[in-house]
Design a protein that fits this description.
The chain is built from nine helices and eight strands. The protein is an alpha+beta fold. It folds into two domains: 1-59, no CATH class; 61-256, no CATH class. The strands form four sheets. It has a two-stranded antiparallel sheet with strand order 1-2. A two-stranded antiparallel ribbon has the order 3-4. The model is unreliable at 1-57 (pLDDT under 50).
């Protein structure tokens, strides 16, 4: 790809150079359609707009080019959406009876190379949870937020979290291609605004419903640096077969209720 500018921001080269200004990620990825085609994606990262310095241009991890991984995601997302169709009505009724507010929770998160997207979950907290966040102690270290006895979580919400049922709507995100079945957990804007270049490496893959963190301690891991180390371990070990292994381990962890709260 030759040099040029997009929206007033210089893009000197797609290979091994830098993008300055409001950090603009430019990359090509294969897309499954009727055959194989190449899509060039342009989007602004939240980094500079939130005050962090521009970062070196990064090429996505090889897993993002894998047609096998995408095929697994498509099959898995369709199965997951089938499960969603079965459990939607009883969970929706339970949520509405337990506390006022919407059935679903939606929030902007950041995925592959900082691409913003909207994530969907069953609501497991009170409707004004974000406004109350400052009143809750963060028991984690670093750029994550965890509290084992978070008072904002509703009664049905605790059940949904322990069983991971709150995550089922994210199969829609997988179907759309914003997420994968296996990857890293998608961070929020207040988290990525403080990322170092080292931390940004975890976003070289698509965010996932599950990953190394979920099968190696889950919510009991409260140090962000440990989570980043697990994310980078996943990138170094990744193969389609390894994804399937992590999916099977995730099923065990969910039914054994390991590390969930």
């Amino acid at each position: 790809m030759s040099g040029g500018s997009v929206a007033g921001h210089e893009v000197r080269s797609i290979f091994g150079t830098y993008v300055y200004g409001t950090y603009l990620s430019v990359f090509t990825v294969p897309v499954i359609g009727f055959g194989i085609m190449t899509q060039t994606a342009f989007y602004s990262s939240p980094v500079d707009s939130l005050g962090s310095p521009a970062t070196p241009f990064n090429i996505p991890h090889r897993s993002t080019y894998s047609l096998t991984k995408r095929a697994i995601d498509l099959v898995g997302s369709l199965v997951g959406l089938g499960i969603l169709a079965v459990v939607l009505l009883p969970i929706a009724i339970a949520i509405r009876l337990d506390s006022p507010g919407s059935i679903f929770y939606s929030q902007e998160r950041y995925g592959l190379l900082g691409k913003p997207f909207r994530i969907y979950k069953f609501r497991s907290m009170v409707s004004d949870a974000e406004l109350l966040k400052s009143q809750v102690k963060n028991e984690a270290n670093g750029l994550i937020f965890k509290n084992q006895d978070d008072p904002r979580v509703t009664r049905i919400g605790r059940f949904l979290r322990r069983t991971s049922l709150d995550e089922i709507p994210q199969f829609w995100n997988v179907l759309l291609g914003d997420m994968s079945l296996v990857g890293t957990r998608p961070p929020t804007s207040d988290e990525v605004s403080h990322y170092s270049e080292y931390h940004w490496q975890r976003l070289h893959v698509k965010p996932g419903l599950t990953g190394e963190w979920q099968v190696n301690g889950r919510s009991t891991i409260k140090d962000f640096e440990d989570i980043v180390a697990l994310d980078l371990r996943y990138q170094s070990l990744w193969t389609p077969r390894y994804d399937l292994i992590l999916i099977l381990k995730t099923i065990y962890v969910i039914f054994a209720r390991v590390g969930a709260f």
